[in-house]
Design brief:
Blueprint: H1 2-118, H2 121-139
């Protein structure tokens, strides 16, 4: 019986040692898993922080671009208004000159008709040259 008892005790001791080893391995695995979980949680937290920073920067850049676009649009509108006003002023000036020229031509033709009926050709030629000289001096 002694022979069987030692074997049983030895088998139990071996089984106890195996269970202790399994428990130690399980504890190591649990600790490793907790460390890995903590590491992934830190990485997740860091990723969220980085994403928030990226979003904030993107919003800031978008706002900056919006303000610049509005400013550029306003400058373009102002520049175009100025160009239109200048063009309108040139058109008005040209129209005024055309009306003045046409009016002067009508007046000259009317005066010529009246004078033609009342003045001989020699006097007509002298008056015509004087009028042209005076018109040249006035226009220049």
């Amino acid at each position: 019986m002694k022979y069987g008892k030692a074997q049983v005790l030895s088998g139990l001791d071996n089984r106890i040692n195996e269970i202790k080893n399994e428990l130690e391995t399980a504890e190591k695995l649990r600790v490793d898993a907790q460390e890995l979980l903590a590491e992934y949680q830190r990485k997740h937290k860091d990723a969220i922080g980085e994403a928030e920073t990226i979003i904030a920067t993107a919003k800031k850049n978008a706002e900056s671009l919006r303000v610049k676009a509005e400013d550029d649009l306003q400058k373009t509108i102002t520049r175009r208004e100025q160009q239109l006003n200048e063009r309108l002023a040139r058109i008005e000036e040209n129209a005024r000159h055309e009306v003045e020229s046409y009016t002067a031509q009508i007046a000259l033709n009317a005066a010529r008709t009246v004078l033609k009926d009342k003045i001989d050709s020699k006097t007509d030629k002298v008056l015509h040259e004087a009028a042209l000289n005076q018109a040249s001096k006035t226009l220049i």
